[in-house]
Amino acid sequence: MEKVSGKLSDIGIVPVITGITDLEECENLAGALVAGGIPVMEITFRMERAESYIRYLRECHPEILVGAGTVLTVEQARTAIDAGAQFLVSPGLNKAVVRCAGEAGVEMLPGIATPSELEQAMEMGLRCVKFFPAEQAGGVGAIKAMSGPYRDVRFVPTGGINLGNLADYFACESVAACGGTYMLGKHLQRHEWEEISALCRRSVQTMLGLRLSHIGICPTSREDAGELARRAAVLLGMDVKKDGGDALLVGEGIKVMRHGGRGHIAYSTPCLERAVRYLNAVGCRFLEASERCDDRGKLVEIAFEQDIAGFEVRLVQK
Ligand code: 3PG
């Protein structure tokens, strides 16, 4: 069975929910997060009746991954698990709480901020932890430093994460997902659901980091390719260069493919594997035959099943 931390890492962003006061707000917030492309909610036990929101979400929103946050005691852990929480999160490492979650078969992400705390979590068999409070405890630099000796650990930094530093965290391979309240801000209190969706979309865009890479043109023959590249270069006042493969580059943005194939629009991303996992998780489909890997087996190119006006849409590793 796929681990919950794997699913969290596919979605990549964990909204930490602290300010809901009734089920209607819970419902509206769930809708806003899903519309913004983040079907995850960490319902914190800082809120009264947290378990009622967990139960409601599990019953009415099977598309959302629902966890319990700020789980400080064994009693809270039991209440959260009874209500259907799919994962538990705590700010610190409380062994009794971790054991309780383990016995119930529910994945737990306890908070750690130092190597010693991390080792205690590892001793309990955990390989994915919350790094809290992320910014105050050293931010991306601290995670990178800890990833040296603890190679197979994945972190979910939380605390002080925002749209300004999100990309830096995602640039770190050992970051499984980022958590925070920044996408809610004052909008939850004010019931500004569209603003929350917009912040979620911007978060996803920041995580994916897609940039237009090039337009690929595929003439019918190699001779046509040379002629077409020259004409485009004259038109745009640019130079023609060979790229590493079998294509001619006109400036930066046009690739004339000499071996035929399909016309395409290519977007680059700093982490193609993460982008594909997220897009798969939200229902996008890719053409298996389009997958291209480098010598080390790392995915470097893939195309969506769906085209845009006859153009194949490709994602490439930056
Ligand atoms: C948490 O509860 O995990 C953190 O307090 C969230 O931190 P943030 O409000 O800085 O995102």
Could you walk me through the main structural features you see in this protein, from its secondary elements to its overall organization?
It contains 11 helices and 16 strands. The chain is α/β, with parallel strands linked by helices and 318 residues long. The protein folds into 2 domains: 206 residues, TIM Barrel, CATH 3.20.20.70; 107 residues, Roll (2,3-Dihydroxybiphenyl 1,2-Dioxygenase, domain 1), CATH 3.10.180. The chain has an 8-stranded parallel β-sheet with strand order 7-6-5-4-3-2-1-8, sandwiched between helices. Strands 10-11-12-9-13-16-15-14 form an 8-stranded mixed β-sheet. It is elongated, with a radius of gyration of 23 Å. The model has no long low-confidence stretch (mean pLDDT 96). 3-phosphoglyceric acid binds next to strand 8. 3-phosphoglyceric acid (3PG) binds next to strand 8.
Short descriptors:
318 residues; alpha/beta; TIM Barrel; 2,3-Dihydroxybiphenyl 1,2-Dioxygenase, domain 1; 2 domains; eight-stranded parallel beta sheet; eight-stranded mixed beta sheet; 11 helices; 36% helix; elongated; binds 3-phosphoglyceric acid
Helices and strands, with pairings:
Elements: H1 4-11, E1 13-17, H2 23-35, E2 40-44, H3 50-60, E3 65-69, H4 74-83, E4 87-90, H5 95-103, E5 107-112, H6 115-123, E6 128-131, H7 139-147, E7 154-157, H8 166-170, E8 178-180, H9 193-208, E9 211-217, H10 222-236, E10 240-242, E11 247-250, E12 254-257, E13 264-269, H11 272-281, E14 286-293, E15 299-304, E16 312-317
Helix pairs in contact: 1-11, 2-3, 2-9, 3-4, 4-5
3-phosphoglyceric acid (3PG) binds at residues 16, 69, 132, 158-161, 179-182.
